[in-house]
Fold these 2 entries.
Entry 1:
Amino acid sequence: MTPSTLTAAPVARDAEGFFLDPEQWTEEMADEIARESGIDELTDRHWLVIRFMRKAYLETGSAPSIRTLGKVSGVAIKELYQLFPKGPAKLAAKIAGIPKPRGCI
Amino acid sequence: MRHRIVILGSGTGGTLTANRLHKAYGDAAEITVIDRDDRHIYQPGLLFVPFGLADPGEIVRPRHAQLHEGIDFRIAEVDRVVTADNTVHLAGGETIEYELLVVATGASLLPEETEGLSGPGWGERIFTFYELQSATALRDALRRFDHGRLVVNMIDMPIKCPVAPLEFCFLADWYLRERGVRQDVELIYATPLDGAFTKPIASERLAGLLEAKRIILETEFATGRVDGESGRLLSWDEREIPFDLLVTIPLHGGAAFIGRSPGLGDELGFVAADKGTLQSKAAPNVFAIGDATNVPTSKAGSVTHFEAETLIENIRRFLDGQELESSFDGHANCFIETGFHKALLIDFNYDIEPLPGKFPEPHLGPLPLLKESRLNHMAKLAFQSIYWHLLLPGRDMPGISPQLQMAGKDTELIANQGASQ
């Protein structure tokens, strides 16, 4: 666990920067995490995915996989990779303030 | 009044459940099992077919012959389930009413969901060992294969038996060495995961085995498209892996009728079920078992076997009007064939990842966990007979507990891992 501060508030994040407690997250923090991760500005399309991720996590207790995102978030996988380069499911989870997607068992 | 129980699917979960319920209720329950065909495949045997280690014919038996006398078996295609009316609708229009329904229709392969995968090259340079016909064709292709790039690619989780792609790599290494052509083959395992396997300690040990066998591990490769003509795997983030022979593990989903059944499945077509009780979220008189569920553990025969314990008890409780027990812990127990007549064994559940130790008796074993041994390989081979003669008929397996046992496991490793994170 690495304690750190975002928008000047202390938050608990793991070694890779994923939130341990989604309740500590605020929308303002999302912009800061995005910049840390190399995304200069969050567009409406980013926010669509971020809100979907949080809702899915809070409802089901696990973060959706890239395949689930592509099927039900309203954003196709190709675009997800443009919005959140490299690993969209992981990066979107990090910005959305939820734990790292396990996605795999 | 007799209970009216309908079971969809007659693979490991459906057959085992039907036989145990028939034993428990006898004439007090009318049990109908529905499947689309009468071929029960011993799925762990599929891994061995491409290497000529199992004959396609010897891993298939009639489904009806695995069901106890007195159980009604029907061959039919299910169109949809309407839980609001307690009805199964068959293709062709017939409907069957149930008092209690068990969905055990497994996982289906969906190669068509990946662009190009089932197009040019399929059956020529692209195969999967996850179904019998392609596994058999792969055997013939492997016999001819003596140089070039052999790529094994799992497209995305969830898949049946998540260790099988690694087992395929280990056996391919062995097979090519036996034939004296290993030095002319580049063997690559491409996975969307960030390591060889999903659980950290096992992943590290398995990555070590891959390296020792000179199998190249490509991680975080999310396949977006397959070009069978030029022989290339292309990822969503524009990486590319050329192949001469591709062994793919296609995307999996639940049976198609689940998607047509209001409220029954999740977005991938797996039955949304409670992970402790196995009751469906769609209706209290609907349960699910095995690969068909969306519970967060491996899709594997051992899981199905352990789930059956919880399922049978909860069906009894439900029919008696009692509260269900939340007793399934996600327990999985898998042999990992590593080639050269050796295998590893892993034992884990929802919360505890695979650890070294001994199984099933603490300290005595005789099977070592997370370690290569000949004994594990022998046990894996012996399991086929246990499957047909003990597991499917619903007999008890002495010494094997449905819940994960911590005794005999090296728990210090988890403590150390916690400290290093």
Note: The mean pLDDT of chain B is 95.
Entry 2:
Amino acid sequence: MNTSATALNDQTMLLSVVGRVDMASAPGLKPQVQDAIAGGHNVVVLDLAGVEFMDSSGLGQVISGLKSTRQAGGDLRLARVPEQVRMVLQITTLDRILRPHDTVEQALEDED
Amino acid sequence: LTDEPLTSSRLALKVHPECTEDVHRLLREFWIEIPDLDEVWRMAFTTALVEVVNNIIMYCGHRGGPCSMRVELRAYPDRVEAEVHDNGEPVSLPAEPQWPESPLAERGRGLAIVRMTVDDFRYDRQVGDNRWLVVKRR
């Protein structure tokens, strides 16, 4: 898994994730979210277009990021979510709290 | 389930945190042999098998010694099976899928995902060996 960070504005960080987000790699997501929050970006959009596969460990790290951003008064949102990730979000019903968005723009507009 | 498979593929490996990489590689090569399965079907099967392997990675080495694992994939006219053996500790599994009580729990969904993505999931303990079987109808 590789990630790259792009500040969209003073509050929002776009983290683009590429590769497999699994038991071996997923723990690498947490420091990226923590860095964004430490830099004042309490809204994090995960662009998942490049994700090949996500397992339950990956989901756990995304939930960890969601909790961290919310504790900082912000939010974490999912954009450009591939089919396999949508499948595990649906099966686990996590799509109710981590809604998959087709575009980064839609993720930014999600105020729930 | 004793009929002869159309094709099969095997892998034996030491258990370590990155060994799902080898399982993904095995699956990629296996799918070439059965090209009629669609992408969504393969995703579901892959997700189930990787979650089983994750469970082995997490719990296999409790006695401190090295753990090993064997994975066999078998394609039949009506189904695909993955049978995984590991030499770790016996495992106690709930009879039904169990989800974490908190929707914001960071762990505890893996084996429930397995049960939701395949048609049959079995675990039994053989002599010094855990056997995991996942079956998905084609």
Note: The beta strands of chain A are 2-7, 12-21, 43-54, 75-79, 100-101.
